[in-house]
Write a structure and sequence with these properties.
With 234 residues, the protein is mainly alpha-helical. The protein folds into two domains: 99 residues, Rna Polymerase Sigma Factor, Chain: A; 125 residues, no CATH class. Helices cover 63% and strands 3% of the residues. The protein has nine helices and two strands; from the N terminus they run αααααββαααα. The chain has a two-stranded antiparallel sheet. The protein is globular and about 50 Å long.
């Protein structure tokens, strides 16, 4: 496959991109070369340079990390010969990264210890929602929503997840449908909603948090997931 030409980078920049790219090697077939991943990642680094605002108090490498990963995801998506299991792993990681990117772009200064502990709990809970939504969307495509087990052996009915998605706003439903059910890329989802990547990240994170609250998933790592809705709940 033809790779995009790698722009001129300083050695330190190139090593940063290579470090991010190496993390993908365990997710893709051995036929995918590191240099291919690096070529895609450099495009993300250049994008990050253009979007970076030092006034936000976020280190450039933290901000750029997810842009580099996003560019690598985009490049891998073009490889239509990727095995289904490898593609599924990548898409799951990409959705989690989309959530984490919103944190990197919105962070300011140094949080207190209490705020940091609270944030860790919220992130862990929201990652559970990303997982649940991914599984619910996959089973919705097969028209057979079932149930999955969360860490701690709490069981969540996937039909309930889909029910809560249906109760979101039109914009939020479109986002979840495009990213999770229709398997659209971030750029495709952004075009559907008329949103930039940054705003798409923020909307995704806000939607995931709303679903987490409605599903009753606690931020301390436990889940108080209600039973599946009765017919008279609708």
């Amino acid at each position: 496959m033809d790779r995009p030409p790698a722009p001129d980078l300083e050695a330190e920049d190139l090593e940063f991109v290579r470090g991010v790219a190496r993390g993908f090697l365990k997710l893709v077939p051995s036929s995918v070369q590191l240099d291919e991943l690096v070529s895609y990642g450099t495009l993300g680094l250049l994008e990050a340079r253009g979007k970076f605002d030092p006034a936000r108090g976020v280190p450039f490498r933290v901000f750029a990390h997810y842009r580099v990963r996003g560019a690598i995801y985009d490049g891998l998506r073009e490889m239509s010969w990727l095995p289904p299991n490898a593609y599924k792993r990548l898409r799951s990681r990409e959705r989690a990264d989309l959530y984490m990117e919103s944190l990197a772009e919105s962070a300011y200064g140094n949080p207190t210890r209490e705020a940091a502990v609270r944030l860790v709990g919220e992130v862990a809970a929201d990652m559970s929602v990303v997982y649940l939504t991914t599984e619910a969307a996959a089973q919705a495509r097969e028209l057979k929503p079932e149930a999955v087990t969360l860490p701690g052996e709490d069981v969540c009915d996937l039909g309930r997840v889909l029910d809560q998605v249906d109760r979101l706003s039109e914009q939020e439903r479109t986002l979840i449908r495009r990213l999770y059910v229709e398997d659209a890329s971030l750029s495709e989802a952004g075009k559907s909603l008329g949103l930039s990547r940054s705003w798409l990240c923020r909307l995704h994170a806000a939607t995931i948090r709303k679903l987490r609250q409605r599903l009753g998933i606690e931020t301390d790592g436990t889940a108080e997931v209600p039973a599946p809705p009765r017919a008279d709940d609708h």
